[in-house]
Amino acid sequence: MALALGIAIAATAPAVAADRYPGSALQPVLSSPDLVFNGITRSQDGRLFSPFQRQTKGEGIELGEWVDGKPVPYPNAAWNAWKPGDDPASAFVGLNAIRIGPDGDLWAVDKGSDSFGGAPLPGGPKLVRIDLATNSVRRVYPLGSGTGPKSFVDDFRFNGHRVYLTDAGAPAILVLDLDSGRVRRVLDGHPSTVAQRPLTGEGRPLVGEDGGPVQVHADQLEVSPDGQTFYYQPCTGPLYKIPTRWLDDEEASDAERAKHVSVHAEIGSTGGTAIDAAGTIYASDTDGLRILAIAPDGAVSTLVRDPRLVWGDAMWIDAAGGLWIPAAQMNRAPIMNGGRSAIRFPTTIYRLEIGAKPVAN
């Protein structure tokens, strides 16, 4: 399938330059003795939020705000109290990613299933917009028209009045029009959205609760600061790119879009990414326990490596130039570790001062 792109996909991560920062520059800023989180976002006034991964069905929170160093359900307990039989359209069933949008609101994507790889419930897949001033849900964007029984809506980024989302279960990119609420699938099943090599963490192939290999298709994504280029990848890499005009063009066919896809950087299994205002993409290397810096020309270097960075997940760049890195340990969670938890508590979020400026999208 890689040959359809005219590109050979490497089996290993690239050789990169010496580390830019020592591990000692990593500052632990948040931790939990019993919860697993796979992301962090920070509002302009300093409020911190994380999505949480329930280790037991029906127990724990999905979205929390860090208050005095501890997470509390956000925007309220009701949105975090879903259980089988409840309406999946008005509560978090399986939250996967969050971020502060260009409008200053908190946005969250719900895959709509309470299990990893499980079929989403009718009305479950959605993008939720939360007003931070009133701590209430402003609008829910249903994603059901663009998803199917194998869908796993994973992450999202903004570009003007559009939101791009990855489908890690039924590999594709979703394009949501925020004005109309319409959802389109693009690059549906294209080789660049499909995982084509084993997912690994800490140097070993990952297996699901059923004992089979874990596959996470279209996952990480970023938009260039000028909004002209879309970067994306299966969880196992490599990192691809395509001009956003080909995602936005509703008349273009996927066959035409495919002609404009190219590899941006040859990287391997990745937990999460972030992009700064200069167009540098930061990606976690789940095997090397490091954060890579990918320049706009695709050159790769090592930002920092440290044994504490076990599955660095969705990162965030704050206004003061700090890179926030959740060490999510997802490869040690039952869903990727043969049904057995090897997570070592406390779980921790680190901050690295890199002097970069954030982008609004």
TrEMBL record:
Protein's cellular compartments? Secreted
User: Which keywords appear in this protein's UniProt record, sorted alphabetically?
Assistant: Secreted, Signal
Q: Which SUPFAM superfamilies match?
A: Calcium-dependent phosphotriesterase
Chief place where the protein resides? secreted
Provide the protein name: Major royal jelly protein
Database matches in Gene3D superfamilies: TolB, C-terminal domain (2.120.10.30)
Question: Record's InterPro entries?
Answer: 6-blade_b-propeller_TolB-like, MRJP/yellow-related
Keyword DNA-binding listed? The answer is no
Indicate the secretion signal residues: 1-17
